């Protein structure tokens, strides 16, 4: 039922998105940059997002994510930190809360020419969260992004990533995960943007493959503010059981 409601909501917003006048290339480029969707477009912003993991039975998790991005020329520096609330599902246990890991990333959009753009980056996950709330890995995820502008309001991008550990407790298995983000994004003159991202995730350590399907809807409110709603639907039964589907709602403020 939840998937059906989300699907109808997406279709309704999509009908609004494609009913627009002639594209304003300058306005659409600004929206593309301020939305934060395209890694090859650098912009300073701060944001807050609530993430809800819809897990099986009575278990669940809510993350409050705070983020800051600083854009300097074609460089982007960002940091994310999360306050996490979890439910074990055991009667009478209530909720437990704690702080998660700090994530720091840097990115350089080293080529932007015509319809093509390239950016390279890396995200470091620092294990500041205690067991049960943090990953317990000091890890890094290098990535390379290629984006192709189809027209002023439409672009396609692909971003392969590889996550591995730099430091860990010897009892924990090594991290070795390949993720390929690919997304098609549509922007409109009236401030809507719509993104669809199919994301294969290959866990080499655990010999596990998943495909995450993620629809994203956003709206520019003016003054540099944007509202963003997205969902991540896992297709692997193991992922659905252990992590569940993910729903996010948040906003950012560009400056």
Describe the model.
Helices cover 13% and strands 59% of the residues. By secondary structure, it is mainly beta. The chain has a twelve-stranded antiparallel beta barrel. It starts with a helix and ends with a strand.
Short structural summary:
This protein has 255 residues and is mostly beta strands.
Provide keyphrases for this structure.
globular, mainly beta, Porin, 255 residues, single chain, twelve-stranded antiparallel β-barrel
Unreliably modeled segments: none
Helix and strand succession? HHEEEEEEEEEEEEHE
Beta-strand fraction estimate: over 45%
- For the largest beta sheet, what order do the strands appear in spatially? 1-2-3-5-6-7-8-9-10-11-12-13
| Tally of domains | 1
Specify the number of helices: 3
- Compute the average pLDDT: 90
Distance separating the two termini: 39 Å
For the secondary structure, the number of strands is 13
Rg over CA atoms, rounded to whole Å, is 19 Å
- Summarize the biggest pleated sheet: 12 strands, antiparallel, barrel
Task: Please name the CATH topology.
Answer: Porin
Q: Which word captures the global form?
A: globular
Report the structural category.
mainly beta
The CATH architecture category equals Beta Barrel
Helical amount: 10-25%
Give me the CATH superfamily.
monomeric porin ompg
CATH class: Mainly Beta
């Amino acid at each position: 039922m939840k998937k059906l409601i989300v699907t109808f909501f997406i279709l309704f917003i999509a009908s609004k998105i494609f009913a627009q006048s002639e594209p304003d290339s300058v306005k659409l480029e600004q929206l593309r940059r301020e939305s934060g969707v395209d890694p090859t477009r650098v912009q300073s912003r701060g944001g807050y997002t609530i993430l809800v993991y819809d897990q099986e039975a009575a278990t669940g998790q809510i993350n409050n994510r705070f983020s800051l991005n600083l854009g300097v020329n074609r460089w982007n520096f960002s940091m994310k930190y999360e306050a996490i609330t979890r439910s074990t599902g055991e009667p009478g246990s209530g909720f437990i809360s704690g702080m998660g890991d700090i994530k720091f990333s840097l990115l350089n959009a080293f080529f932007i020419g015509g319809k093509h753009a390239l950016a390279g980056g890396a995200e470091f996950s620092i294990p500041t969260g205690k067991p049960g709330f943090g990953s317990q890995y000091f890890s890094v995820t290098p990535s390379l992004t290629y984006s192709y502008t189809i027209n002023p309001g439409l672009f396609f991008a692909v971003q392969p990533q590889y996550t591995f550990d730099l430091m860990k407790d010897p009892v924990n298995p090594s991290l070795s995960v390949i993720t390929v983000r690919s997304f098609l994004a549509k922007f409109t003159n009236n401030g809507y943007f719509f993104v669809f991202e199919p994301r294969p995730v290959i866990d080499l350590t655990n010999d596990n493959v998943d495909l995450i399907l993620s629809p994203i809807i956003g709206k520019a409110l003016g003054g540099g503010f944007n509202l963003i709603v997205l969902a991540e639907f896992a297709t692997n039964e193991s992922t659905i059981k252990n992590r569940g589907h993910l729903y996010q709602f948040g906003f950012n403020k560009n400056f």
